[in-house]
Amino acid sequence: MKKLFYCFGFVIGLFAGLSMNEALAQNTFLSDTLDAVHYDVYLDVNHQLQNQLSGHTVVHLTPKVSSVNNVKLQLLNFTVDSIFQESTKILSWNYNNDILEVPLSVSQNQTDTFAITIYYHGLPTIEPYGWGGFHISDAVSYNLGVAFDANPHNYGRAWFPCIDDFIDKASYDFYITTAPGNNAVCNGSLLQTIANNDNSKTFHWRLNEIIPGYLVSVAISNYAAVEGIYQGINGAIPTYIYANPSDTANARASFIHLNNMMQIFENKWGTYRWNRIGYVSTPLGAMEHPTNICYPTGCIDGTLNYETLAAHELSHHWFGDLITCASAEDMWINEGWATYSEALFMEGMYGNEAAKAYRRDKMRKVLQFAHYKDAGYRALYGIPNQYTYGETVYQKGALVAQSLRSYLGDTVFFNAIKQIMNDYAFRSVSSLQMRDYLSAKTGVNLNDFYQFHVFQPGFTHFAVDSFKVLSTSGAFQTQVWVRQRLNNAPSMAQNNRVEINFMGQNWQIYKDTIHFDGQTGSKIFTTPFAPVLAMIDMEERFSDATTDCYRTLKNTGVAEFPETFFSADVLAVPDSAFLRVTHNWVKPDDLKQASTIIYRLSSNRFWTVEGVLPVGFQSKGKFAYTKQNNQTNGLLDNKLLPAFGSADSLVLLYRQNCADDWKITPFTKQGDPFSGYLIANELKQGEYTLGISKPNQSGIEKAEGKVMKVSPNPAKEGFYFEMNNNEDCILIISDLKGKIIERMEIRKTVTSFYWRAETLSKGIYQAIIINKQNKPIDSMKLIKE
Fold first, then answer.
1. Are 641 and 615 in contact (CB under 8 A)?
2. Quick check: helix, strand or coil at residue 460?
């Protein structure tokens, strides 16, 4: 499920010192004493009552304990008309618009199965957030089974009485009566369409597979079905895309890769266990109701712009539908793995490079923004209720799934996931159960992996500290020293497994793995050549606190390194060059010796530049800086740079390796106080970071007048004005023909401001300061590049 998708055009301390097992034990559910085994849902939608639901549900129950004298079900804000136990009418019950407590006329025991029938009607509930619940209108009526703001989030109770948690699962029969001209689409298979005497129709659907109540689905409109067949592992499976009649051509185009998705997921996750593949167009979505995915109408637009969303929802038929998280605190099992499946689809459909770019983008966004969106660094397990469907669960959850794949290796990883899909099919699973199961099946103890990546917040960071070739003939011996740093994690990861990639002078590649605990590790490798580079995780298989990218450079010009906040301006490249840049989302090492010039270093990031560069290779390196303001939400350098004011004291620092000390390297500055680049005049291999030094250490050009200073000048995007006026005045900016571009009042209390100029044409402009008596005070030329 993607939260609030509109398409138009632990933290262990949270449990107050309890162990994880104790915390799990405190979760109590209605399903602790009763098992709902089957539901018959009879519903009238916009036929008898306009914009209301009326109907009844037969709940078939089996006690889990002896001497059950009452039944508790969940039903949200309906009028309960009558209740029966089998054929016996219940004369009284308790109902608080959420929990319906029904005293039984005959007590029930563990060997019994009995039925409770509840007749009800009313206006269905939609959560205040406007997403989860039952949406009803003349055009389209449908339910979305999760409410983001509710506690619990499960919202099967928004349209039928049920045991509404992640654990209790049942099969279903649906009998949906609609107004003339509409079709009803539910989970499972359509068994019968009954024509009623008043021109209405009743649609009988059946789902034999068992699912929890929040995954139950109905959608009602004048749908047209786009039908197809997928040849699956166990035979042909029908596919249905229910869309608006005018959208059928778009549906075919937008879902042209549906069979490819299925093939990829069956190959990686195991056999598809449902009787059909189905999507249904709804105004809001997306929601993974099995075989009847609610999919946003606006995303059925004839393009492939939203196919990762389609893949995400489809993959829930393994993660979230086939196996279901045991509690909201385990939601990463549903949503993190479905989000990871997006990248898996990209890998299978478009290749490894596309998948790397997709994961790299997610890694950057998680490291840069997730802790802001989720109000702190959070563990995957035990997520607070208000962040169940937040960035940590979805995005970091996906990255941890990828890291587990790297940790175990592809063959072991995918075989184990297929096994858990089989052994836990149509059951719920907790994070602890998943950890223990995968440990047993793979033969790899995953306690340490889960402890760091699932049960505590933050990220680990791995780097090659140094390496040394010990022998240069025969079987080459190379010793590698590695180091672990932390990004907002409380303790070091243990039992680490990290891939080391060696590259020779002729770009030969050899890879091996180092195992180590804690902060540092070392290993002597036997390599088939003398390496000139030793790199951590060159192919970005493990999701640590880095975003890195390598490129082969053959031409001069600017080469971008996506998600690294770096680009190379190649000036000369006599032969092909291999260049890899890593943006490290951790604090760089401190200065080894106190400096009277360098006041402080960045506290959260630095770059590593490494490569195999031919003689004569020349390049500049552009390192981006950014801080938050009204126009840009960068959030990278806010701790380094002041909230307002000049960035003239910002400098670019360089060191060759960890044995070296940081020094200011020659650079120029391009940008404004809020964002721009520090451009190294000569790009060298080693490490770079940002720092604060004495002002004007860079090559920034600043125009100075009597009362105003302007930088940068020339500028591409805008000009930063510093004012020293002792009276209120007016700034006039005009072109050389005298046409006024901007006129603004500058009060004497204003000391600085930023004037955006992206829309201006290139050229020379005039800035004039006049006082209230229209007397010129200062003027200068502005050059727009």
1. no
2. strand
Secondary structure letter of residue 330 according to DSSP: G
Whole-number Å distance between alpha carbons of 615 and 52: 77
DSSP per residue, 204-244: EEEEEEEE-GGG--EEEES-EEEEEEEEETTEEEEEEEEE-
| Helix axes of 410-423 and 258-269: crossing angle, nearest 10 degrees | 90
Q: Which helix (H) or strand (E) holds 404?
A: helix 397-408
Work out the average pLDDT over 268-297: 97
Q: How far apart are CA 711 and CA 693, in angstroms?
A: 18
- Residues 13-34, mean pLDDT to the nearest whole number: 49
Can you tell me which residue has the tokens 């995968």? 438
> At CB < 8 A and 24+ separation, what contacts does 267-271 make?
267/348, 268/344, 268/348, 268/414, 268/417, 269/315, 269/318, 269/319, 269/341, 269/414, 269/417, 269/418, 269/421, 270/318, 270/417, 270/418, 270/421, 270/422, 271/232, 271/233, 271/234
* Closest alpha carbon to 35 in 215, 158, 153, 169: 169
Q: Give the three-state DSSP class for 641.
A: coil
Q: What is the chain's mean pLDDT, rounded?
A: 91
Q: What is the pLDDT of residue 737?
A: 72
Rounded CA separation 382/331 (Å): 9
Pairing of strands 88-90, 79-85: antiparallel
**Distance, CA of 221 to CA of 288 (rounded, Å):** 19
Q: Compute how many other C-beta atoms are within 10 angstroms of the C-beta atom of residue 776.
A: 10
In terms of C-beta density within 10 A (0-12 exposed, 13-18 middle, 19 or more buried), how is residue 351 classed?
exposed
d(CA 254, CA 279): 12
- State pTM to two decimals: 0.86
Task: Tell me how many helices (H) and strands (E) the chain has.
Answer: 12, 47
For the stretch 491-506, pLDDT in tens is 999 999 999 999 999 9
With beta carbons less than 8 A apart as the criterion, state whether 61 and 115 touch. yes
Rounded Cα–Cα distance for residues 689 and 668 (Å): 14
Q: Which residue has the tokens 């969106």?
A: 373
**DSSP secondary structure letter of residue 157:** G
DSSP state of 318: T
pLDDT tens profile 727-752: 889 999 988 777 888 988 888 888 88
> Cα–Cα distance between 187 and 174 in angstroms, integer?
9
